[in-house]
Amino acid sequence: MSLRCSVVLTTRLDTARIQAARRIIDPVFLHTPLYRCESLEPELGCAVSIKLETANPVRSFKGRGTELVASRLAEVGPPAVVCASAGNLGQALAWSGRGRGLDVTVVATRHATVAKLDRIRALGATLELVDGDHELARDRAAAIARQRGIRLFEDSLDIETCEGAATIGLELVDDPQSFDTVLVALGGGALATGVGHVLKELAPDVEVLCVQPLGAPAMTRSWHQRRVVTTESTNTIADGVAGRRPIPAVLDDLLVVADDAVLVRETSIIAGMRLLLDHAGLVAEPSAALGIAALLEDPDRFAGRHVVTVVCGSNVDATAYHRWVRPTRGRGW
Amino acid sequence: MSLRCSVVLTTRLDTARIQAARRIIDPVFLHTPLYRCESLEPELGCAVSIKLETANPVRSFKGRGTELVASRLAEVGPPAVVCASAGNLGQALAWSGRGRGLDVTVVATRHATVAKLDRIRALGATLELVDGDHELARDRAAAIARQRGIRLFEDSLDIETCEGAATIGLELVDDPQSFDTVLVALGGGALATGVGHVLKELAPDVEVLCVQPLGAPAMTRSWHQRRVVTTESTNTIADGVAGRRPIPAVLDDLLVVADDAVLVRETSIIAGMRLLLDHAGLVAEPSAALGIAALLEDPDRFAGRHVVTVVCGSNVDATAYHRWVRPTRGRGW
């Protein structure tokens, strides 16, 4: 890793711009809790800190990025924007756009988490549903942007999404604690490349470990093969990271900043959500439990280390969530 | 209320000391999330903001106060301290004392929340259990302090507990949003008098509304009758506020700073916990759901207002919590 550190980072991100972003983003999304969570540690066998991105008006980290784009659109236009979203980006864009008088359209799959769709509508955005998966929603958002001549906002490709996520990295680096590993959910790659860029530039000894579900492995496979690998379908409850077509420019950045990318099973994601609820008092959506899932699957790898996991969202459908976390027989009922 | 504002506040608290306290308390307990939570609002009929005190190493606001006393003990001694606790104060004192090499003893009732007792032990404190309720634990802690010649740390009576809680008030006042009402859990009174003092001094138009369970009404009855009223017993799941013997000096302060004190039913506390979980993605222990319970019981009182409720703790036993929040028939199962 020290060899890698000695070279200048060649990603699309720029640390000075990320630092400047902190002055643009609504403070309600910044300086989120970061704390050691010892009650998780007996089950996980390593020191665990939580970076909590759920205690804000949209219950995910996505507001950091949508604040940047909405602020720029409010200044220089156009005053209308469309994005495809599994639900969290759309909710955050709706929130940031509403406060600035922007016309926001969100395209999502009909199979998305209902609570996310309800919140997008409640925040005043136009919601269009497609009969298909997230990649179809991406295609449809692009078509709408072309037809209407409005801004297409693309998660992970558009630099604001990465810069917003990267401000989490600044907060990790600012903390007086030192970490061995940062666990980040891997989907389109904005969170991983954003956080990873800052860490590799300012704290290069910290391992950046990306975690993706086995049921949606496109970006992880791409990272390992150093070329874009797509998949035919996805099959995971972690809706927030269920892409099939990695974006080449994002993969390029990820190859620079990630130390490793691992895949985890659905049962581990559920166990992770349950552990966060029962031992840390935290609601995590499936994508936000990927880090804990990785710790559960490979305890030897992390033994004796201090890891921080980014709990990146808590938007769940209540019914599904109760089913995931309800105690199984023999666990006290 | 404007008449009340024109007089100098005559409580045991001092705003300059509270401001100074922020420089002593570990930052992990400060500047906690404060955000509008619109997803709660359709059910509650008013604008609701959350002040979240659970995303820290001890999952309650109590660390703010224990940091103050532990810091002073580490400087001037004695190096040993004992407190009675329903579990949150003891856990926080254990945390603050461990970092400063203090000898911490916690006395609790044998019927306390098991997760709280486990955390007190895990943090290295000596835990002594009594066969009785919280008032017996208070008596026993006082006896230990006399016998061993160590510091007795008394919740709500000792000014550090009130000053620590009062730093929450500073954060509320610092926020650019304006609130009509602040809902605080009422137990011994540290939270209510601390937050109340700051609000009445710096934002006197904000209503300070204390909420206590019908099953543990001693301080609320005392406030209404303007004299100490004790009760024979308590009967509530809100263990964090289940006292029977209000402290006269704390009642005196509460009479100065509280605008009202109300009692809520157990069913409303449970409904509040469920609402916070299902609509806000937040785990609240019963005491931390008292504010939402008050909103549920008297929606007309709050219609059209902007309230902030302090979610003051999330330490629950997993088994009991799952029982409280599990969906009832007809709610999606």
Automatic annotation (TrEMBL), chains A, B:
Necessary cofactors: pyridoxal 5'-phosphate
InterPro entries from the UniProt entry: Ser/Thr_Dehydratase, TrpB-like_PALP, TrpB-like_PALP_sf
Keywords, ordered alphabetically: Lyase, Pyridoxal phosphate
Gene3D superfamilies: 3.40.50.1100
Pfam families named among the record's database cross-references: PALP
Stretches assigned to the Tryptophan synthase beta chain-like PALP domain: 30-313
Source species, domain of life: Bacteria
Protein known as: Threonine dehydratase
Organism this protein belongs to: Micromonospora andamanensis
Gene name per UniProt: ilvA_1
